[in-house]
Amino acid sequence: MTEDDIYRASTQYRLWSFTPDTLASLRATTNAAAADSVRAAFRNLNPPDHGGVKAEVDCLTVEEEQKLVSYYCLETLELVDFCQYPTNVKATAVQYLKRFYLTNSPMTYHPKEIYRTAVYLAMKSEDNFRYVKSFAEKLDNVTAEDILAPEFLLTQGLRFTFDVRHPFPGLEGGFMELLAFTNGKGIGGPLIEKAPKELRDDMLAINSGPGTTTHATTVKELVARCQNAHGKAKELLKTSALLTDAYFLYTPSQIWLSALLLVDEALARFYLDTKISPSSDMKPKLFVTLRQCAGMLRSSPAAQPGKEEKKELKRIVKKLAQCRNPQNLDLVELNKAQKRDPEVNGGQELDENIAKKRKLEREKSMKESEDLFGPAILDKGG
Fold this sequence. Notes:
0% strand, elongated, mainly alpha
């Protein structure tokens, strides 16, 4: 069984790999279904034949949903960094959040209530377990119950598949191979007939090329070049690869090779030359795919939203406050109700106390949406 066969048998390939068209179609379907559900929920809460006013709910668009989810992916990165959890927890948590919102809408479940749970679930999946109470204590105004309440919803959205294949191990393995080539000990692929020392000489002969300005003339300089490329590529994998759709559209090996291609194209080309015969028809096709992936990594959103992005996010959050599904405003109470009666969210009427609580939660949500990034700064300059 080849490595390719093993990957194709994984849940990541079978359930979470798409073409650009199928990915866009899935998001559009999710958005349309959520919008229909929201409008139906508002009609049930305020029916026209009981004195209610018939008004069309202005729901989020697919693009607005993606902007909001992207922002909370950034929040996830910051939260994991704040808690000083390892990179694999960070990467897995972001993928959990992105996977969840392929079939769930922010109008149904607000990302601010899901992303903390995604981090907690990633800690368990990545063998970095912390008690939920100790995790909650690191956060402001968050209880252990707030984190646990959406956990089953999240696992349902993930289709109970928790394995995430990351590009980090591939990058580390490629880096070790490059170092072996610099020492004259690297071995090429099955169809590469050059001896290890010949490959090292070829490596010394590669030009600086796009992505680097240094041409290594000694083994020491060559090692430094590999280390520099490795560090830059790893940063891309920890940011750009997580914040784009790369995991949905490309394999882990394609992602890390694309990152290497961005930071040192000549080095990436040399590495692939040691694996694939120059006469192979596969090489041109592979470079087309790698360049497409590299273009996606290059277009990644900034780690911190700018002024215009913040303004747009505020607008979206205010709009979301008006179109959130009123049945799911309080996930803690909803979780308790489902434990009491599994049919609560399947069409059964909620009792009057829960309905009132939801109304209060909705008013609270609208108030919080006034300013996503904190209170406005008063202009005292006159």
